[in-house]
Amino acid sequence: MKKLFNILLACSVYCCITAMMATFTSCSDFLDEHTPQGTLSDEQVKSPENAEAMVVSAYAIFTTAEDINSSFSMWNFDVRSDDAYKGGSGTSDGDVFHQLEVQQGVLTTNWNINDMWVRLYNSISRVNTAIALLNASDYDMKTQRMAEMKFLRAYAHFLLKRLYKHIPFVIDENLTYDQYNALSNTTYTNNEGWQLIIDDLMEAYNTLPETQADKGRPTKAAAAAFLAKVYLYKAYRQDDAATNQVTSINEADLQKVIEFTAPALYANYGLEDDLHNNFRPEEEYENGVESIWAIQYSRNDGSTYGNLNWSYGLIPPNIPGATDGGCDFYKPSQNLVNAYRTGDDGLPLLNNFNDRDYNKAADNADPRLFLTVGIPGLPYMFNPGYMMEETSIWSRSNGLYGYNVSLKQNVDPALIDQYLIKGSYWASSMNRIVFRFADVLLMRAEAQAQFGNTAEAIQLVNRLRTRAAQSTQMTASYPSRYGVKMFVSNYRGTYSKQDAISIVKMERRLEMGMECERFFDLVRWGEAATVLNKYYAEEIDNCAIYTAAHFTANRDEYLPIPFEQLSASNGHYTQNVGNW
User: Fold this and answer.
1) What's this model's pTM, rounded to 2 decimal places?
2) Which end of the chain is more exposed for a tag (fewer CB within 10 A), N or C?
């Protein structure tokens, strides 16, 4: 079967073990006082079938524990960035996310603040149960499966740390109930927390194979890409416990980024010929050469809806007769659209891209714009049967959040009932790539630029720009049919260190637009307050919700520790800085 997460879904042993797993309603319920030995006989514990079933159960929770309001892609929380508006019918539609978008009125009691915390710690619980079972088992795949579980545990802790900064790390799978309840979220400094994630990943990296037969299991390259990302976050030190400011950039960590992005580690990977191939649901495009590790979704696996991705269910627009019921969330901002403008030399307008709004009849644009953003006057999902317009069809808010639509999460309506399925919301079987090779190139370019190795950094950026120029399989007719001007070229000449850093940061935004990385990048760089307050001021004419928006430095970089978790911690948790 195509997808790892579905291998055992129908197996009675899987259902039996899954039934043991508690659905925790708060972090205080995170650890149930049982061990695998206490719920299964010794003989069962040693069964390879049971060990493998629990491993698959741990993988599966990374699809089953997320939903439309708590997507592990983090799109719901990327609405805090300058890439996207929240969308929906108005500010009261998903009001707690509106509060995050304008950084006003956010409460520690808001359900979305607690909900993501609980879902991710439930995922860690499932992984730790699998690790405990593996430790007790007699299984020839034990060492490799243990490495896979350490990778997944690192993934959940990484998502939590990017959101909340100061978190309890559950890295002992044999904690008693009392030991769990004594965990603190400030036991480790910010830097030590990143190191704990790295420790799990190093175990995975040292064990995982170069290739995996089952799609969805991480490889050595996936662990390397993940290590590079964590080291890159760690490099931008936030050592002052009283602030969220970047206090220094650590060269030893940057050197690790270069080590774990070395080309030899990625012999089995590369860039797709066309960027859009990474965002197509058809089986022939999934798990392609650029996909280093992806969350696997599927259809037609014997269950009613298959293992579909419901976490993007709020994003499709509401097209009458097609995507009826689409909620139209996560809409690309005008600022992001403007960032794709290019000058007469085919290069980004680094310092003045937002001096006016993009005009498709007059402006040159990077071809990636048309693969990232659906724009009025152009086909939605490259299908001329669905021409976008500035009407309520393309904006449930009647223009409050503009008329642009995200393309990377959506699927052509022509594929309804094939790859786009209607249930309570819209879902698709399209994989979500977590680590793709383009990101590896960008991480390496950023580290090289910070070291002042500008020629190497620009060369890596140019690989992506060369690919951007040829990413027109879906849009080749746009210039002649719709009058757009596509022009992108490579950087030439020599650049200062600061110029190279600016170039890499802009390229990261263009390449990874609407992939839910932008807000976290701004926080990592220490630029969130400066960039976002400027964005609010400039974007008011395009989106009036920003009239009262303000990003408060040393508060808004991270979510508050949820009130429910603080209350249940018996004084062991400390609230994040910022007068929450």
Assistant:
1) 0.93
2) N
